[in-house]
Design a protein that fits this description.
Length: about 425
């Protein structure tokens, strides 16, 4: 099994790598589910402060993948998120190339919805790009987008962790004001959303610098080939170099997109359906859909056996120990055939191995206790020899029974005692006649 981090998270296999840490598929032993765990690689104060900011972000939204919990172990720290298996937008473009406009509008609507929730918390993402936008593995069904990686995000008004002339983000997705060192603001995120939309529609990374230069020199260009005019008008509102001329909120851009979708032409039957595959691959050996396979399952109850029941205090009584099957008594030897008689002979019954003499054995086999089986083996009562007693001469009521012993002392003792008593009685009578 993998390494257990902080006594809770079992790291299974790496599934990604970022600028400051690796992302692992992990098993949460407390919540009994698979999660994505981002393990911090560096331990300097600057990186730790970014980690604290990122793990402190708590946004509950279906299109936002924010940290759920965190843990520390010696000089390592990690935080966990939901495990998203469909890969990023880069995987989809790698599989299909340019995507149909209506499919792009669905993704763009979900991205703007999640970004509106992030901005409502006063947070600027600052690193929106295809690799940070993940998808659930929905197959050919409706896609489900998740905005992730808040490693360099910050709240408006918080102190910056970099110098003023130091740019943080991914080259190619910067807004023009970011290149000038302006304070992070929401319109910068919207500019990156417009570049992501172009990437999805054209199947390649857009040249943001050439696009900004064209906007500044010639104004808003016409719609590129393959992009419907209503959709291009929304993208142009996101890509304006001047942040004051750009959409100011994600909610406003989303409303404009909804209007544009209504004016799009109906899809043709020639479009290939887009399928979002599972990009994580199978679990390593030793793991199953419900967790590690080494966890021993409780034994299944055996039908017909009593199960332990809870006591009054809530604990459980122990089940009784297993009973050994009773040892059947050996079959007694058959009695010799008897001569015909007027009365039907009665076969002698074997004497009971345990109990008083003369008692009949019960009609069912008597089990021998295990601890006495080695010292008191069961043997059948011997049959009387034929020359001593014939079954026909033995009354039916006493057949098979030893003669009952009469009470009193033996005859050798009783006769002398009786003679002495008679002598004493005679002496007593003689003494009475002499008085």
């Amino acid at each position: 099994m993998g390494e257990v981090f902080a006594g809770r998270y079992e790291l299974i296999d790496p599934i990604g790598r970022g600028g400051v840490g690796a992302v692992w598929r992990a098993w949460d032993q407390r919540r009994r589910r698979y999660v994505a765990a981002k393990v911090l690689q560096q331990s300097d104060a600057h990186t730790l402060l970014r980690f604290v900011r990122e793990q402190a972000l708590r946004i509950d939204h279906p299109h936002v993948l924010a940290p759920a919990s965190w843990a520390a172990d010696d000089d390592k720290v990690l935080f966990t998120m939901d495990l998203v298996s469909g890969g990023s937008l880069a995987h989809v473009i790698g599989d299909y190339g340019p995507l149909p406009p209506r499919f792009v509008c669905t993704l763009l609507d979900q991205l703007l919805s999640g970004l509106a929730a992030v901005h409502a918390e006063g947070v600027v993402h600052r690193d929106i790009k295809p690799a940070n936008i993940l998808l659930e593995a929905t197959g050919t069904g409706r896609p489900h987008l998740r905005l992730s990686d808040f490693g360099i995000s910050m709240r408006k008004g918080e102190p910056r962790l970099t110098e003023t002339n130091y740019i943080v983000g991914t080259p190619g997705y910067f807004a023009p004001e970011q290149l000038r060192g302006a304070e992070p603001d929401f319109p910068a995120d919207l500019f990156a959303v417009g570049l992501v939309a172009l990437y999805l529609l054209q199947g390649r990374k857009p040249d943001s610098q050439a696009l900004v230069e064209y906007f500044l020199a010639h104004g808003t260009p016409g719609a590129p080939e393959g992009i419907p005019e209503p959709l291009w008008q929304v993208l142009a509102g996101l890509l304006q170099p001047d942040p004051q001329a750009r959409f100011r909120t994600a909610t406003g851009a989303r409303k404009a997109l909804t209007t544009a979708v209504e004016m799009l032409p109906d899809p043709t039957g020639e479009e290939e359906p887009v399928e979002v595959f599972d990009q994580l691959g199978p679990l390593p050996p030793g793991y199953g859909p419900d967790g590690p396979l080494t966890t021993a399952a409780p034994p299944a109850p055996v039908p017909g056996t009593a199960q332990p029941s809870p006591s009054e205090t809530g604990s459980f009584h122990l089940a009784p120990p297993p009973q050994q099957p009773p040892t059947p008594p050996p079959t007694p030897a058959p009695a010799p055939a008897a001569a015909p008689a007027a009365q039907a002979p009665v076969a002698p019954a074997p004497a009971a191995p345990h109990g008083p003499a003369g008692a009949y054995p019960p009609p069912y086999p008597v089990p021998v206790p295990p601890q006495q089986a080695a010292t008191q083996p069961y043997t059948a009562a011997p049959t009387a020899p034929q020359h001593l007693a014939s079954p026909a001469a033995v009354p039916a009521t006493t057949a098979g029974r030893a003669p009952a012993r009469r009470p009193g002392p033996p005859r050798a003792v009783a006769i002398p005692v009786l003679l002495v008593a008679l002598a004493c009685l005679a002496v007593g009578f003689w003494a009475l006649t002499q008085t």
